[in-house]
Amino acid sequence: MKMYQVESGDIDDRISWLDMELNEGKRSPRIRQIASSILTRKTSTGEWAVPERDWEAEVDAAYKFVRDKVRYTRDIHDVELFQKPDRTLQLRIGDCDDLTILLGSILGSIGFPLRIRVVGLGGNSFQHVYLLAGIPPHDVKKWKPLDPSRAEGPGWEVTENVTIKQDYEVTSEENP
Fold it and tell me: Which is nearest to 103 in space by CA: 121, 123, 89?
């Protein structure tokens, strides 16, 4: 499994890498299997733990999986790495872009439209990235923030000291 080092400081180049990894990851049989395991758990009464067509519950369950299974850990000092979702699961560590790739791959594999939000904190450069999931997936009415690098939970997003905020649509390439 590979980790990619990105040399360019250009945000469009970085988002292009994230987009490419999300498109590849959402087609991974292992990621689809993980999504299945998240959604098909049963309660003690035999009901689905995540009810069918409860889009919020699906997004929240995927978020909780990533938050509980992967520890937020910074990249190597002065090196920007992007890990494939399988590698992040294997290592059980990753920074905000690795968590975005993993969570986006899981949600993309079950049909959610996605955006990547990039923010600058107290400066003029982008410093943090997290995911937005479109709910409901077939006719989006809202974009739910998902930042598993923080413990606050699904729906929370950073607001303190935000000086730059930009959203990028995740493409739906047929053949990434």
Answer: 89
CA 175 to centroid of chain Cα atoms: 20
pTM attached to this predicted model: 0.89
In CATH, 3-169 is 3.40.50.1970: no
Compute how many other C-beta atoms are within 10 angstroms of the C-beta atom of residue 7: 8
Q: How far apart are CA 114 and CA 137, in angstroms?
A: 9
Q: What is the tens place of the pLDDT at every residue in 41-89?
A: 999 999 999 999 999 999 999 999 999 999 998 877 777 778 899 999 9
Kindly indicate the confidence band of residue 9, based on its pLDDT and cuts at 50, 70 and 90: low
Phi and psi (nearest 5°) for 48? Answer: -65, 130
What torsion, rounded to 10 degrees, do the Cα atoms 65, 67, 71, 76 define? Answer: 110
Tokens 């493409």, residue located: 171
CA proximity to 59, closest of 130, 112, 21: 112
Query: Could you tell me what percent of the chain has a pLDDT over 90?
Result: 68
